[in-house]
């Protein structure tokens, strides 16, 4: 685990780490809904919000804005080990997934769109809509209800030579289980080498390293507010094959431009803040001499820290029972699941999930209710669950916060 001293120093870099202006002191276990924001991101956002100039003008301020954007793109390319292509921002992660999937379907010229039932409705909805418009078959591979994830073995029977577009989720925001994107992409490439593979990395990005070269995909989308930045924009990377296909663009404009209108320079600048933080953290947990190595080390440390927090939540802290030992508590995806990324979703026998969330909130622990609706029904309906409690951690959370949560859960489970 990250040392206690380092943990306190890194927590000091985040805004509202243990309290907020509305509730006061609270434990923040709602990171899947949006991670804590770096204080540097808050400062950067305020600075650029006051700048009246736009990019692309012939003046000093405009030239500097262009440099800021170029630096942010280079920073993200290094952080994500991107093999060429380009990064660009849009309205949100959802909007970018719709835009990329629509362009891929329209460029495919028929065939199949392949996805899975584990995916977020942003991807499933976009694939359903645009496959129909493009005259393509939309095939959904069924995920494993017992483990809460999907694997290459589930995709294999449905991978065909006419699979032209494929979508993969890197981690489920409901079960918290990661997906082996590289293995699935490898199997798709064996059968359909030219298939455009689009990845929803929104849930995964804050919980470990992203290596786009190793993944061998064509597009990857994140929501920066879930990766220590702020709300108001999404980020996409597209590889050379994807950036060259026809897409929405201005007539006679640059052919490979994927941005729609003038974007917020401050949004780009905050991405550099995130990469700077990862660089700093990597330097604290490793002896790596180069920046890329430090960023990789940060991803490894984040993953290890969150795995230790999950272990404590499942199996106990001190004399407090873990969730696995509470008789009325059911853990979605199983107890010791190696695919889990900092998130535990639970139900309590005899207590409505909404009531559990309320009780925890009243005790000063922020969690979230997932209902069997258009967002989470794809996971909860097959389990026969009307809802669940999502407890999502990040590397800046502590064992003491886990202990507070477990103390409250013992009371709730006993009453249930």
Automatic annotation (TrEMBL):
It comes from the Bacteria. The keyword Transferase applies. InterPro entries: Aminotrans_V_dom (IPR000192), PyrdxlP-dep_Trfase (IPR015424), PyrdxlP-dep_Trfase_major (IPR015421), PyrdxlP-dep_Trfase_small (IPR015422). Residues 27-405 form the Aminotransferase class V domain. SUPFAM superfamilies: PLP-dependent transferases. Gene3D superfamilies: Aspartate Aminotransferase, domain 1, Type I PLP-dependent aspartate aminotransferase-like (Major domain). GO terms for molecular function: transaminase activity. This is Aminotransferase class V-fold PLP-dependent enzyme. It comes from Rhodalgimonas zhirmunskyi.
